[in-house]
Amino acid sequence: MRHSFLDQYSHLNSPVHRRDPRLKFLLSLLFIVAVVLTPEAGWLTFAAYFGMLAVVFALSRLPLGYVLKRSLVIVPFVLLLGIINVFTRPGLELLGFNLGSWHLGLTDGGLIFLGTLLARSWLSVLALILLSSTTPLPSLLKGLEKLRIPRVIVMILSFMYRYLFLLIDEVMRMKQARDSRTVGHLSRSFQAKTVGGMIGALFIRSYERGERVYAAMVARGFDGTSRTLNDLTFRRGDAGAGILMGLVILLPLIAGRWLS
């Protein structure tokens, strides 16, 4: 099983990796909020935030290919959600065509909306990749617990990450078993029936595994508190870095709104 799905490069040693998980989480949250609050067509502000992330990524020593590959996954979903607005948003029509009795017009307002949506989504995903790739998950969960995030949410995240790999392995074994038992061209109906059976079997196995894990935890006296070998320590350097980065994050947003 591969257990480096999210925090593959969290073992590196860099100024970003050494910062407290609570600080990185709060700064990531502040960054995402600032990006979302950036007005439409605030391209200079988006460029400033991208440059900010580029500097932090360079300090973190994360591979560029790894970051781009993971961040671009969000693009198809954003295009799927925002493409209809290209033709429905008010604005100057740049290109139009008739589809039966409907007239579809490509407007500048729609393109601005789609570009803004792409910028906000991509920058937010980059911030989350930076957080997860520079912070070991146990430390991040411990930081969330220290920040008084509801314990049930922290535990759900912990179990989701822990058993995600088991479910992936289970799916791969089921797929291998299906492929070894089917030879030649298969009809779509047969494939759909097989996939439906696999989903049902996976649900039952996951439910049974959850019951066994719960019984084992109760037998061992689990009280819902996550425990780690190293307790978190918030140092003066973390406080100084937090204040500085917080001001840097807010500056483009404030400047962009003032100039507009």
TrEMBL record:
The keyword Transmembrane is annotated on this UniProt entry: yes
Family matches, as InterPro entries: ABC/ECF_trnsptr_transmembrane, ECF_CbiQ, ECF_transporter_component
Keyword hit for Transmembrane helix: yes
Keywords: Cell membrane, Membrane, Transmembrane, Transmembrane helix
PANTHER family: SLL0384 PROTEIN
Pfam name, any one: CbiQ
UniProt membrane topology term: Multi-pass membrane protein
Transmembrane segments: 21-37, 72-92, 112-131, 152-168, 239-259
Protein localization: Cell membrane
Organism (species): Candidatus Dehalogenimonas loeffleri
Protein's name in the database: Cobalt ECF transporter T component CbiQ
